[in-house]
């Protein structure tokens, strides 16, 4: 079966948590496309040109807690405005989306650009304050951040860059289901998502 679930939304909205839970539940493969941009961003912090980095990414580049740091997140959102960087990453994402057995991809432009024909599109969001609070808890546990204010500033700066870039800006696809998790816990969000998915699943 080929079945693509596209999950987009702003930073720390709960896309990854939801995507993993959906993929587990359905036995689908999962791709965190943010990691591709984070890996390219991390290479630019080491002095590699962004376009070159995007063209030669390997699986090992997508590993490690260091990719989760706010510095790498900012670098990711800066390389993500470059059309050549985005273009270099398209084929891999599309091939992943159409693999046999079903796939869940999360990011910013999955439902709008990468997989405009995805069987299900979700746009996961929450207020900036809630998202920053969740991300702060996560990163302070790993010793990767010092203050809530820094995390909020990172989230706001990335949201702004992601929504206002010319190429593949962050926005809901016209046919996306909007899922605001500001007051939903993870099981609650999963229930809404699975309902939306079930409506599109072939019955056999
Ligand atoms: O992938 P994305 O950046 O959108 O978010 P995430 O990494 O899935 O979630 C960020 C943090 O928020 C994680 O620590 C989740 O456990 C938490 N979360 C939550 O508390 N409630 C939700 N409904 C969704 C996520
Ligand atoms: O986990 P979080 O939502 O904080 O970020 P991420 O999904 O790992 O994405 C990091 C950055 O990569 C984003 O701020 C975007 O600038 C960029 N990105 C993108 O442009 N397109 C995607 N499909 C995924 C990420």
TrEMBL record:
EC number: 2.7.4.25
Domain Cytidylate kinase: 51-191
UniProt subcellular location: Cytoplasm
Pfam families listed in its UniProt record: Cytidylate_kin (PF02224)
Domain of life of the organism encoding this protein: Bacteria
Catalytic reactions on record: dCMP + ATP = dCDP + ADP; CMP + ATP = CDP + ADP
Entry's Gene Ontology molecular function annotations: kinase activity
Coiled-coil positions: none
First-listed, main subcellular location of the protein, grouped into a coarse class: cytoplasm
Amino-acid positions noted as binding ATP in the UniProt annotation, renumbered to this chain: 9-17
InterPro entries: Cytidylate_kin, Cytidylate_kinase_dom, P-loop_NTPase
The entry's keywords: ATP-binding, Cytoplasm, Kinase, Nucleotide-binding, Transferase
EC class name: transferase
The family this protein is said to belong to: Belongs to the cytidylate kinase family. Type 1 subfamily.
Protein name: Cytidylate kinase
Gene that encodes it: cmk
């Amino acid at each position: 079966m080929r079945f693509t679930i596209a999950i987009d939304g702003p930073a720390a909205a709960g896309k990854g948590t939801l995507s993993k839970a959906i993929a587990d539940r359905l036995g689908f493969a999962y791709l965190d496309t943010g990691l591709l941009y984070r890996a390219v961003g991390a290479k630019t912090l080491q002095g590699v040109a962004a376009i070159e980095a995007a063209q030669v990414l390997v699986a090992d580049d997508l590993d490690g807690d260091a990719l989760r740091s706010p510095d790498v997140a900012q670098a990711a959102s800066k390389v993500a405005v470059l059309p050549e960087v985005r273009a270099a990453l398209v084929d891999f994402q599309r091939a992943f989306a159409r693999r046999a057995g079903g796939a869940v991809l999360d990011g910013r432009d999955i439902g709008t650009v990468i997989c405009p024909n995805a069987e299900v599109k979700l746009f996961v969001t929450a207020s900036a304050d809630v998202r920053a609070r969740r991300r702060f808890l996560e990163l302070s546990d790993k010793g990767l951040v010092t203050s809530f204010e820094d995390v909020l500033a990172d989230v706001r700066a990335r949201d702004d860059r992601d929504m206002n870039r010319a190429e593949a800006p962050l926005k809901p696809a016209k046919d996306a289901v909007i899922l605001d998790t500001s007051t939903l816990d993870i099981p609650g969000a999963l229930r809404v998502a699975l309902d939306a998915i079930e409506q599109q699943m072939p019955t056999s």
